[in-house]
Amino acid sequence: VVARATPGSTGADIANIVNEAALFAGREGRKRVKMADFEEARDKILMGVARRSMVMSEEDRRMTAYHEAGHALLHYEQEKSDPIHKVTIIPRGRALGVTFSLPEKDQYSKGIGWIKAHLVILYGGYAAEELIFNETTSGAQNDIRQATDLARKMVCDWGMSKLGPVALGGADEPIFIGKEIAQHADYSDDTARIIDMEIRDILNTALESARNILKKEQKKLESLTEALIERETLNDADIRQLWGLEMPETKKQETAL
Question: Which of these, 21, 104, 122, 188, could form a disulfide with 41 (CB 3.0-4.6 Å)?
Fold first, then answer.
């Protein structure tokens, strides 16, 4: 599970997690390391130190809970998404909350189905804030940036748009669309405008899908939010139990082990 939770990591990275886990156990005076120690060590390395002492207002906690619940719910509604591992509203690093998923196996490339599903999930927090509070917050900044970067690569690098399999722009271009892209590219203003339209169309489609699903499944969104406010951290089994969902066969086998 530790290796699967750190896709792309080297043996040295995993060894670092093991060492951190041993330190967590040592601080509590235990001679044996628990799986919870490995998870906490992994979370610390990948997502930053948990800021448990950070005082958040009830309004901010509720906003964060809805935001993360929006991401998590959409994972379960997307056929080609990676399974949820953990959802938390405990601040980590610069994030007020985190929704963490795990791939079923090592993946070296992503298909268009996974990418489109991931775009919908990225807009889950934004769409949840919009649905519940009729406004959005700066907490969606990183999600929007990731989504825009993915959509730009779909159009300019991966041939996943109406423009077809054409490489447009350098590999190290910044994440801009429209006029700014044209300043860095060897193609016409007309092509830049088409790129802009394609990127916006991809993003708008993903956002609209997120909105529609969350509106349809608002009761699930509400129940998950309340559970997060009460318990702060939930794993896949917790969420499935909350909604009365079956555990996948692979997860049952892991639990048996």
Answer: 21
Report pTM: 0.82
Within a domain: 5: no
Which residues are marked as active site?
Answer: 68
The CATH code of the domain that includes 41 is 1.10.8.60
Calpha distance 167→1 (Å, rounded) = 38
- The answer to whether residues 49 and 93 touch, using CB atoms and an 8 Å cutoff, is yes
The SS3 call for residue 75 is helix
156 CB neighbour count, 10 Å cutoff = 25
With CA atoms as reference, report the closest residue to 151 among 187, 128, 186, 181: 181
Claim to verify: residue 151 and residue 119 sit in the same structural domain: yes
- 239 band by pLDDT with thresholds 50, 70 and 90: very high
For the stretch 199-212, pLDDT in tens is 999 999 999 999 99
Q: How many independent structural domains does the chain possess? A: 2
Any idea which residue has 């509400």 for tokens? 222
Alpha carbon of residue 187 to chain centroid: 33
Tell me what the mean pLDDT of segment 79-98 comes to.
87
